[in-house]
Amino acid sequence: MQVELQGTPFLQRGLHKPATLLLLTLVLKLLDSTTALAIDKTDGGSSTLQIEQPSQPLLDHTQTHFLPNRTGIVELFEWKFADIAAECEQFLGPHGYAGVQISPVAEHLVVSSDTIVQHPWWERYQPLSLKIASRSGDEAEFQQMTQICNAAGVRVYVDVVLNHMAGAYDEETASGQRLLVGFAGSTANASSFDFPTIGFVRRHFHKPCDLSDYMDAHVVRNCALNGWPDLDHYRLDVRANLTDFLNRLVDLGAAGFRVDAAKYIWPIDIKLLFKGVTNLNSEDFDFPENARPFVYQDVVDLGVDAISKTEYSSYGMVTDYLYAAELASIISGKVPLSSLINWGPAMGFLPHQQALVFVDSHDAQRDRRLLGANQLLSYRQPRKYIMATAFMLAHPYGRVKRIMSSYYFAAQQPEQGPPMKVEEEEDEKAETEVEADDEVGDGEVAEGDEEPAEANGGGEEPTEGDEGPAAADDDADVDTTAVPSPQIRSPTFDVSTGRCEFASGWVCEHRWPPIVQMIRLVNTLSELEDGVINFQTDGPNHIAFCRGNKAFFVFNNDARLAYDAQVETCLQSGVYCDVISGGRAENGESTTDCVGKRVVVDVEGKAHILLPAVFGGEGDEAVVGSDYDEADVEANDAYGVAVGVEGEFGVLAIYDGSRLEGDAEKTPTIVEDEEDAEDAEDATGLTEEENVTKEDVSPEELEDAAVETKSAKLEEAATDASVENENAEGEDEKEEGKEEEEEEERKEEEEEEEV
Predict the structure, then answer these.
(1) 654 pairs with which residues across the strands?
(2) Of the candidates 105, 240, 553, 599, which lies 20 to 30 Å from 145 by C-alpha distance?
(3) 630 with 699: CB under 8 angstroms?
């Protein structure tokens, strides 16, 4: 049902009165409980009251459609579709990740200016049209990616820009002397609000106004963010265009959307917009029937302005920036670690079911003004970032967890875009293609290739659906020259570690071993059945807690004091392998080799924990990449800096899956007497005779042994040095004696000559 009442005295005189709005709302509730009311007040658009009834009931947009036993969404920021597909198949799927968030896919602005860094990251958030054509790839590549990712058990969530269109970025584009040019060749005039490819003109946007007062919700949601043309979502034709775009993505296999800058859109408009989005494509993909797209909205709310995140939580999930800010403050040492005992809604966060939580975001990495004095952690503080991410995953609060996967950039150049292929790489690719063509031979067609099309002005014949740069009108006195955008460089990986190679320019936090191990651990837990129990503190910056009777975590955020205590683990007795320092690993013969620390849990479920202090050298300031230099690997490789000399992260995690029971003959056990043998048998289920090949070493014994070994080596070195010094002194004395004898002989000879 749709009713339009235009130009009546009633609308002009009484539409904005609270009593009138209340009366209309009550009438609508009597008509139909599913009817929605959308009213735009004083935005300069048409004075139209629109009453809509959706074609289908409003269903839940908070279901992620994760496959069972999977956790976490990874934001592969600025990755190409082809690389995302490969990552889903080869890494994300096999390691238990549940989803991937990809950068905006719509055709975006290509920046051409001498005063702005070329191809900045924010180009992707400046849409010129709604074609699926970005520097990540085209529509065909997008569909291939969703097919591969869904087959690997990884859902695809698309970052969508619905608030605005591309804006001017210099004097020429602001004055209209030069048109904006998109990645696929579309053009637009930001000064006249003319976007011909999509059909948007001035009436489809709010009246221009400065976003100058964040204490006025009307200003925040109706004025232009950073001067970008602000879409009027009150208009049905605007929503229809955006809905068609979202439906196309759903049809191609997307599982849901992140709504960028949702804070700047009226909540009712987002609600109405997503009513028109179809159910997920269950015919071509393994989604449940009648499943609605998962929607999570980007709303920055620290409680300091007129916009509240709770306004958006009734029909989708919301990103909780307060969560990230508070966690950063605690891990940075500004607040005691023990305050995490109250972690959850009591800290001012959203209810668990409505919260998408994270440690880092691409916006917070670059915009120091985004959260004021509350700066988030990132790969630039790698040890603290690992601790924060481990806690986020270990603690059950926050139904959906998101992990950032970044690229390196200099702190002094936050606008820098993703790693791009250099000219040498392009030349090598071209040479390879030429060599391949030469091998085929003149006139021959390689197997699998089609016959070449007839020449068309020296270029390839355009295929259906492809469009070149839009031609300028004959009488238009504007520059429409398109600037070619270089290709994004693909990440490369270290074969031995699986991490992204520093030289490729990608950080790939999602591949850091402690985070990968934590994903595997958390996938064995239930958020409902395995809650936090037995929260323990041993000082303000030492905490430990259990997740039911399945997992145990220890955190040491003290800059000076080690966490050295006997603690309750809630686990059955046995030898466990810490996943943060390495976890279990296959060695070709057995799956019970422990790469990390070993923790012995006694029959009472207790273990002695020794976790060193590690953060003395990593303060509030970034320790990685402030002066990013691709050649300076030692100073800028984030994970390498995190590991450092100690190899400690201030975290220990063990769980049922890291227990070494049944294969402890491959693990060390020290048995010194009959009483110790009985204790070892109680803990491991094995007798002394079964432990003759290797020795089980508890953490404290390992520490003592390491200290003794180090002391012995120091004493030996000191003894050797002493002996060397004595020998050197003896040699010096002999040399001096020899010189004295020679001097006496010389004097005697001189005396004889005189006589």
Answers:
(1) 552
(2) 240
(3) no
Question: Is 127 exposed, middle or buried, given 0-12, 13-18 or 19+ CB atoms closer than 10 A?
Answer: buried
Instruction: Tokens for 160, please give them.
Output: 């969508």
666/695 Cα distance (integer angstroms): 9
- Identity at 134, one-letter amino acid code: S
E strand map for 114-249: 127-134, 137-138, 155-161, 180-181, 187-188
Q: What is the dihedral of CA 748, 750, 753, 754, to 10 degrees?
A: -110
d(C-alpha 137, C-alpha 487), whole Å: 10
pLDDT at 745: 64
- The C-alpha atoms of residue 13 and residue 726 are separated, in whole angstroms, by 105
CA distances from 495 to 94, 203, 356, 501 (A): 16, 55, 33, 9
Q: Among 147, 119, 213, 751, which Cα is nearest to 483's?
A: 119
Residue 222: strand, helix, or coil:
helix
Work out the angle at residue 714's Cα, subtended by the Cα atoms of residues 710 and 718, and round it to the nearest 5 degrees. Answer: 170
Q: Quick check: 143 pLDDT over 70?
A: yes
Task: Write down the H helix ranges in 100-176.
Answer: 139-151, 171-175
What are residue 123's phi and psi, to 5 degrees? -50, -40
Domains, the chain, with CATH or none? 71-319 (3.20.20.80), 529-655 (2.60.40.1180)
Distance of alpha carbon 377 from alpha carbon 406, whole angstroms: 13
- Please state the length of the chain: 755
pLDDT, average across residues 30-34: 39
Cα 71 to the center of its chain, rounded Å: 13
Cα gap 126→168, rounded to integer Å: 10
Q: pLDDT by residue (tens digit) across 35-65?
A: 333 433 333 333 333 334 334 433 589 999 9
Half-sphere exposure of 357 (CA within 13 A, CB side): 31
pTM of the model: 0.76
**Distance separating alpha carbons of residues 257 and 273, to the nearest angstrom:** 13
Q: What is the pLDDT of residue 640?
A: 82
Any idea which residue has 């809630």 for tokens? 570
Q: Which residues contact 36 (CB under 8 A, 6 or more apart)?
A: 51, 52, 53, 54, 268, 271, 272, 275
Which H helix or E strand runs over 246?
helix 236-251
Q: How confident is the model at residue 401 (pLDDT cuts 50, 70, 90)?
A: very high
First vs last C-alpha separation in the chain: 139
